[in-house]
Amino acid sequence: MPSSLIPAPVRTPVLDHELLVHLLGRIPDPRRRRGVRHPVGALIAVAVCAVVAGARGFTAIGEWARDAGGGALARLGLERGGVDESTLRRLFARLDADLLDAVLGAWAATGTALVAGRRVIAIDGKTVRGARSGGSSAPHLVAALAHGSGVVLGQIAVSEKSNEIPAARELLQNLTWTAWSSRCTRCTPSTTPRLS
């Protein structure tokens, strides 16, 4: 007999690369039409896979793409061969970071653990270390994390003249969840909306 009344989490299968490519393909391409060789979704998918594999910068992502082989790149949507590191660097400089964050959070949410048939996430706030500049204070972020894996599903900055509660509300409005848990000790009933 288990010692806890809470059932063990049920893990969903490995995240589907086809779903990743589909979701990333919905991001608007910020590049000019002339000279575009690869779809924007495919380029971002290559970068995501490289980062998941351990790449820490654009050079490493380019190296991963060169080493991945034609079959892997074709499954990610790159039909016309490899991709250069400088192409990825220019693309990511122009992308809408908030939209990319939302799309990747939605993709990551498909792999979250289920407890009693519900997806469980945690809301937590942290101050970013080493990010203070000049006379300003370090940014404070509120993030939604997959409870079982610790994967960040979304995050939002807390206003300097506010606290975590309004930011948590805004974050939850940006996400659609069936269930969530909070480690916030200052939560009130108005902070914890009923989600269907």
Overall 3D form: globular
Distance between the termini: 32 Å
Number of helices: 7
Strand order, sheet with most strands: 5-4-3-6
Number of DSSP strands? 6
Can you describe what's shown?
- The protein is α+β, with helices and mostly antiparallel strands and 196 residues long.
- It contains 7 helices and 6 strands; from the N terminus they run ααααααβββββαβ.
- Strands 5-4-3-6 form a 4-stranded mixed sheet.
- It starts with 16 loop residues before the first helix and ends in a 14-residue tail after the last strand.
Give me a quick take on this structure.
With 196 residues, the protein is an alpha+beta fold.
Give keywords.
6 strands; alpha+beta; disordered C terminus; 37% helix; 4-stranded mixed beta sheet
Would you spell out the secondary-structure blueprint of this structure?
Layout (H helix, E strand, L loop, with lengths): L16 H8 L15 H13 L5 H11 L1 H6 L9 H10 L2 H13 L4 E2 L2 E2 L1 E7 L12 E7 L5 E6 L6 H11 L6 E2 L14
Parallel strand pairs: 3-6
Antiparallel strand pairs: 1-2, 3-4, 4-5
